Amino acid sequence: MSDHDVAARLATEAGNLLLEVRDELAEATQDERKAAGDKRSHDFLMAALAAERPNDAVLSEEGADDPVRLSADRVWIVDPLDGTREFSESGRDDWAVHVALWQAGELVAGAVALPAQGITLATPNVSAPPAAPGQPRVVVSRTRPPAVALAVRDALGGVLVEMGSAGAKVASVVQGLSDVYVHAGGQYEWDSAAPVAVARAAGLHTSRIDGSPLTYNRRDPRLPDVVVCRPELAAAVLAVTRD
């Protein structure tokens, strides 16, 4: 099975497990659903990767960082449940599972499962988004849109689209439901690795907000900012974000 297939299958299966957890704990508190979802998806992915790719290292949001990954040639970067808040809220579908593979300095495979939507976007074959309908749509958090995203919206004469997890936001650009995702409020590698791999496969622009490349498997896994957008909007977006 190829690395692309492993990423897609494991993201999808972890997502199906999370749907089961959601059903099982329908009467539990939101905090109980969050904790159970994080743990069970993490445990599943760690066991599955150990079985499928036993010689590879893993960086997971829910696991202790293993310094061995810094000298490894291949590292899986996973977010077992991206958007725990949305997952814990009945009926919301804007949460995701991220599974990406970094190899020799590059993201080489990735999958973003949107379990509540029944969708998994996975490399290598990701369709480019359909043509934009008009005003650029800037996808932002439901609660605290970062100031940089508001500045981009104003500069482009665009509109805001509110959504939950980072993976769901990037997926919305891939699917043509929005046009720009820009974040500068602090993230980690697992928040963007798989979404960026998928976005690149779809032909989208991906970078830091200063236009520099996104790099992964660094000693410090913090990766605080990201831009994902239609390539034709990249110059206009970066003109704002670089400032």
Layout of helices and strands:
Elements lengths: L2 H22 L5 H23 L4 E4 L13 E9 L1 H5 L7 E8 L2 E9 L4 E4 L14 E5 L5 H10 L2 E5 L2 H9 L5 E4 L5 H13 L3 E3 L18 E4 L4 H8 L2
Parallel strand pairs: 1-2, 6-7, 6-8
Antiparallel strand pairs: 2-3, 3-4, 4-5, 8-10, 9-10
Describe this structure in a few short sentences.
By secondary structure, the chain is an alpha/beta fold. The protein has helices spanning 3-24, 30-52, 84-88, 147-156, 166-174, 189-201, 234-241, and strands spanning 57-60, 74-82, 96-103, 106-114, 119-122, 137-141, 159-163, 180-183, 205-207, 226-229. It catalyses: adenosine 3',5'-bisphosphate + H2O = AMP + phosphate.
What is the CA-atom radius of gyration, in angstroms?
17 Å
| Strand neighbour order, sheet with most strands | 1-2-3-4-5
Q: What share of the residues lie within helices?
A: 25-40%
**Total beta-strand segments:** 10
**CATH homologous superfamily classification of the largest domain:** Fructose-1,6-Bisphosphatase, subunit A, domain 1
Question: Which overall shape is indicated by the principal axes computed on the Cα atoms?
Answer: globular
| Count of helical regions | 7
Helical/strand content category: alpha/beta
Count of discrete structural domains: 2
Tell me which CATH architecture of the largest domain applies here. Answer: 2-Layer Sandwich
